[in-house]
Amino acid sequence: MEYYSEKISRLIAELGSLPGIGSKSAQRLAFHILGMPDEKVKKFTDTILDAKTNVRYCKSCFCLTDRDVCPICSNPNRDKKQIMVVENTKDMAAYERIGKFNGLYHVLNGVISPMLGIGPSDIKIRELIVRLQQEETEEVIIATGSSVEGEATGMYISKLLKPAGIKVSRIANGIPVGGDLEYIDEVTLLRALEGRVTI
Amino acid sequence: MEYYSEKISRLIAELGSLPGIGSKSAQRLAFHILGMPDEKVKKFTDTILDAKTNVRYCKSCFCLTDRDVCPICSNPNRDKKQIMVVENTKDMAAYERIGKFNGLYHVLNGVISPMLGIGPSDIKIRELIVRLQQEETEEVIIATGSSVEGEATGMYISKLLKPAGIKVSRIANGIPVGGDLEYIDEVTLLRALEGRVTI
User: Fold this and answer.
1) N or C: which end of chain B has fewer CB within 10 A?
2) Mean of the per-residue pLDDT values for chain A?
3) Residues of chain B with CATH 3.40.1360.10
4) Phi, psi of A76 (to 5 degrees)
5) At A170, phi and psi to the nearest 5?
6) B68 Cβ under 8 Å from any chain A Cβ
7) Is A14 touching B (CB cutoff 8 A)?
8) CATH topology of domain A6-39
9) What is the pLDDT of residue B135?
10) Most distant CA pair in chain A: distance in Å?
11) What pLDDT is stored for residue A175 in this prediction?
């Protein structure tokens, strides 16, 4: 980066520190930003700071939102009997996008990972238990990822909840629709076989 | 984006308006930024605004720099007899990176493009002529891109300069070193043949 003057190099370095932005992309983005009108750049940085300042956890489900209670939790038409437990706000959005789940969510904001020193108390598990004691939940649907950590976190929560008599389910593993068996990993193939349904 | 609250959606939209950032990348970047410590986000936006405010054209070669005259133009050890004409600051950096060209640059900051309504007076051609009248230039090396516009811009400059008795050259087109003939486009193959050198 020593081929650019200091302020340009610093801009490239900052952009390059973002995930998925390599050094070529960082250069392209930097020159794009330098070529933008001043007011557009100001709007860009204002939007970043505004989001950073105002986005917080929903007091109920702990998704990231700019309100005290997110639109889903405050929607009286959502079915309060079902709570889907997801790792993060992006995963919640993925299920919202299909528009077929009408229950509530609980966003853990992480997974248990002994390797990274993240224990059950570092993610929003205690908050889930508190919610279940206060709300009329009948079923908790575990939708953590299928990574080792995601699976372990799901198992941990399931073991915590079962004694309380709450139905706990897990979203199905299997072949993605349209997926070609040839390219599917072995664990998924095995899960799909184990989880076969009578037709 | 209606699955996120407004300030998050706006952040995703701003990030997604950058070149090469699709909607998935914009979401990942947005949540990455929301997860960064406050002071890191402030440093990020400050760096953007600082660069945008202070980066300007070098008064001599018109590259983007944070000084009045860029480090290359103000370096007494550079050979003032050669000026390489490039489209933009990134292309200048590409040649600086190899460290084998010790002359000066002239950055056009664009190419002539009748389609986009960009004429010779919209890029730094007049400034190049002024420079050549004042400086001790012996050779102008055209290094504009090999797009139709880049070629045409190079030709235009070449025709302007030749009557003044300045040597004008163009960087060679040909097969990239390590390039597989099979995958090289026809125009490049033809140029490589035309430009063959005796060995």
Assistant:
1) C
2) 92
3) 73-198
4) -70, -15
5) -130, 140
6) no
7) yes
8) Helicase, Ruva Protein; domain 3 (1.10.8)
9) 85
10) 67
11) 83
Q: Where in chain B is the domain with CATH 1.10.8.420?
A: 6-39
Reported pTM: 0.82
pLDDT tens track for B104-120: 999 999 999 999 999 99
> Nearest Cβ partner of A66 from B6, B28, B96?
B6
Residue B19 corresponds to which tokens in the numbers above? Answer: 């070149």
**CB A106, CB A133: distance < 8 Å:** no
d(CA A74, CA A185): 40
Chain A residue closest in CA terms to B90: A27
Q: Quick one: pLDDT band at residue B2, thresholds 50, 70, 90?
A: low
CATH number of B73-198: 3.40.1360.10
Q: Which of A1, A9, A12, A14 to mutate to test the interface with B (most CBs of B within 10 A)?
A: A14
Contact A99, A90 (CB under 8 A): no
Tell me the Cα Rg of chain A. 21
Q: What average pLDDT does this structure show over B71-96?
A: 94
Cα(A26)–Cα(A17) distance, integer angstroms: 9
β-strands A139-142, A167-170 pairing: parallel
C-beta neighbour count of A168 within 10 angstroms: 17
Tell me: the pLDDT tens digits for A72-100? 999 999 999 999 999 999 999 989 988 88
Partners of A170 in beta bridges: A142
Indicate yes or no: CB of A48 within 8 angstroms of CB of B51.
Answer: no
The SS3 call for residue A39 is: helix
Neighbours of A160 (CB within 10 A): 18
Please give the residue of chain A at the shortest CA–CA distance from B109: A35
Which H or E run contains B155?
helix B148-161
The Cα–Cα gap between A54 and A1 comes to 34
Amino acid at A80: K
